[in-house]
Amino acid sequence: MSKTIVAVDGPAGSGKSSVSKQAARQLGFGYLDTGAGYRALTKTALDAGIDLATVGEQDLVVLFDYSISTEPDNYWVKVGDKDLTDAIRSQEVELNVSKVAAQPKVRSFMRQITRSLAANCPNEGIIVEGRDITTVVMPDAKVRVLLTASEEVRLGRRSLDLPGNGSLEAQLSDRDKKDSKVVDFLNPAPGVTLLDTTELDFEQSVTALVDLINH
Ligand code: DC
């Protein structure tokens, strides 16, 4: 039987990562966080002193020896033998990742990596989560979902993730603005199911996603 691919898009703070991960656990599926790739590439370029505007011009195969776990209960991100699991969540990466993710050569490189990681995942299914997954990366996925929530709710969820971050509000809407110039992740493309979690708590959001996958 061929693998069940589930594609989940959504804006920052929509809960797409935690909801996708928990749904994958419940289904025995793999889970792929595609934002981690853009974050790890940004961190690698910063550490190497590369001008971020030129990341797309670099030899990415040489620069970026990337690996990521697809097990929902054992999440890690590496470049070469360097573990970047925590480093990719830093403020430095948060503030710079949009510059890297906006470059077409970076996006096409990351698209290949994502497709190959999903194809090689050993589970019977995988939930692949990230901005352009339902439209550009996995347009043929069996289930395609745009997970969203009102801006107010998204800001609230994000501040629970990162307590004590005063400029969070500005950062989040700023990043969504920058990212939305590259990818339309706020409106579902034809054939993509909109899952609005504004009125749902975490467990209800997970159940709604699992139901969509099972039906
Ligand atoms: O989902 P995230 O916050 O970890 O994403 C990090 C950055 O990467 C964010 O600027 C959006 C971008 N991204 C993207 O352009 N395409 C994806 N498939 C995933 C993330």
Automatic annotation (TrEMBL):
Residues 6-214 form the Cytidylate kinase domain. One of its GO terms (molecular function) is dCMP kinase activity. The keyword Glycosyltransferase does not apply. InterPro entries: Cytidylate_kin, Cytidylate_kinase_dom, P-loop_NTPase. One of its GO terms (biological process) is nucleobase-containing compound metabolic process. Transmembrane segments: none annotated. Signal peptide: none annotated. It is an enzyme of class 2 (transferase). The keyword Transferase applies. Its EC number is 2.7.4.25. Keywords: ATP-binding, Kinase, Nucleotide-binding, Transferase. Pfam families: Cytidylate_kin. It catalyses: CMP + ATP = CDP + ADP; dCMP + ATP = dCDP + ADP. Belongs to the cytidylate kinase family. Type 1 subfamily. This is (d)CMP kinase. It comes from freshwater metagenome.
